[in-house]
Amino acid sequence: MLFARLFLLLQALVLGGFGVAYFTYPQEMAALTGMILMQGSAVVDVRAYYGALQLGLAVFLLSSAVRPAFIRPALSLLTLLFAALALGRTGGLYLDGTVGQTFNLYAMAYEATSAVLSYIGFRRLPG
């Protein structure tokens, strides 16, 4: 249970940090991936989807880490989310022919590793 709690806390910190960064500096963060936000509506979308969504997830993970009944659902959610992100990014890199793009390779490695670790945490829980 300790591993699961620590993992949830770590993910909450990482996702919360990225959420704050995307909400506060949407143009700069989007530029890291090569995106250019050309209209105000694009900036609002990045703040909401990349910022607020990650912040909301971080709050859920923090609250789950201190509530034993929420640990299993939180790890299950992270396993599915990170696996979907890693598979989606892998498919996108393949389809678009941009396999050598450093940012996406690091992001994919983080997502795949997080999916595996959250699954391990899920499987190690009693019951």
From TrEMBL:
UniProt entry keywords in alphabetical sequence: Membrane, Transmembrane, Transmembrane helix
One Pfam family hit: DUF4345
The cross-references to InterPro entries, in alphabetical order and at most eight, read:
DUF4345
Transmembrane segments annotated in the record for this chain: 47-66, 73-91, 103-122
Q: What name is this protein filed under?
A: DUF4345 domain-containing protein
| Provenance organism | Pseudomonas turukhanskensis
Q: What is the lineage of its organism?
A: Bacteria, Pseudomonadati, Pseudomonadota, Gammaproteobacteria, Pseudomonadales
